[in-house]
Amino acid sequence: MIFRKIVMFLKFIFFIFTFYHYGFFNFQTKSIEKFEGLIVSVNSNVLTTYDLSERIKLALRSLDLEDNISNRDNVREKVLELLIIEKIKKSEAIKENVNHTEDELIDFASMLYNFPRERFEDFKVFINKENGIDIDILMDQLSAELMWKKLLQKKFSSKVIISQQEIEKILEDEKKKQGKYEYNFTEVFFENKTSNDWSESKKKLKNFVSLLDQGISFNNLADKYGFGKENQDSELNWTIEENLDTKLKKILTEMKEGDISREIKVNDGYKIIKLNKKRIFGYQMLKYSFIKVSSFEIENLDFSKFSSISCSNDKFNIDSNISAIKLTDVIANEMISVYLEKLEKLEIGEFSTVISHDNQFSVLKLCDKKNELNQVEKRNKIQNNLYAKKFNQLASTFIANLRKNANIKYFNK
Fold first, then answer.
1. What is the rounded distance in angstroms from the CA atom of residue 233 to the CA atom of residue 224?
2. What span, in angstroms and rounded, lies between the C-alpha atoms of 143 and 399?
């Protein structure tokens, strides 16, 4: 059933507004919960214990975590902060006369949760009755984020200008970066509340690690903490090695893809990172075609048996102990790194030395190498990336300033 899939989909949604609610107790009735008590006022908009309870319920559901006191305590502070940010976003959108129609909200929900819009009523029943989550609270989240997106477009879309000089500079910089390593990693930072006091940041780090120990995906959990990147594969999320500080570069160099670092103490707190991918700069636009000759025993890879195989063939009959397969137009940054390192050194028609990988021995013959993008496509790609980067920077600065100047009053502190 399509809504059963939504439970799994919740785990990978990258919008932070999808995940956060909390509660101290299990109240006897919903009507009592909704008015149990005030927690915080945000620009005159109040948040109640019921608001927080429902948000944490959705967070724990999306993370596949048991709803218990320990898990609630681990995420409560961050959940509350994200709820405050949401209220700030919505109040600013209302002040700027930004709104949306009911149809726009339904379309937004159907896009995020991957259901046909004509089944919206079924979706509400699924969320409310089968998952025990207040659908009104969820729709309030979606409404706030939709209004925020529309506000950002209204304020900044016409202000982002990309010049030809900027594009030319990027092209020149890319020439200098060719052959250097770049890294795609997710970083979660836990900032000290006061200077030279690492106790609170260390506590937050331990809470984060305890959730990881329960089997939660690092990037999924990072999203919940508001530090995750919306699209890990985006070209905006790659950092060239020369732009890393010495300490971080050393750590990333020693990590394998998928590794999570130990705690890293910095001047104003702690951080922890996960290496998603690494690649050699420039290869993301290359495609390789090659023949892979393999055997489980290195002794079987007798060069005389396969030296005459041709790239013009698609099927090969070499030896019962040797397999051969032709791979066409494999994108470089999607290739196993040990294969790419061999292929980049070959001329077309040449064989590599023996590669040991995944309990198998292989030799590669390079058949073709081509650049995926022409100059026009490359310029368009650079322009789009520059636009997205500038737009995101404006949006980040905007919400940071709104948060700094917001009138926030805590009732229980």
1. 18
2. 17
Residues in the chain: 413
152 and 78 housed in the same domain: yes
User: In degrees rounded to 5, what are phi and psi of residue 8?
Assistant: -70, -40
Indicate if 93 and 186 belong to the same structural domain. no
Residues 145 and 61 in one domain: yes
Element (H, E) at 60: helix 49-63
Question: Are both 136 and 274 inside the same structural domain?
Answer: no
| Same domain assignment for residues 213 and 346 | no
CB 307, CB 329: distance < 8 Å:
no
* Number of Cβ within a 10 Å radius of residue 171: 13
pLDDT tens-digit readout, 336-371: 878 888 888 899 999 999 999 878 899 999 999 887
**Residue-range definition of the domain harbouring residue 59:** 4-157
pTM of the model: 0.60
Q: Any idea what DSSP says for residue 260?
A: B
Is residue 135 in some structural domain?
A: yes
- Six token digits for residue 21: 């609610």
> Rounded distance, CA 352 to CA 291, Å?
11
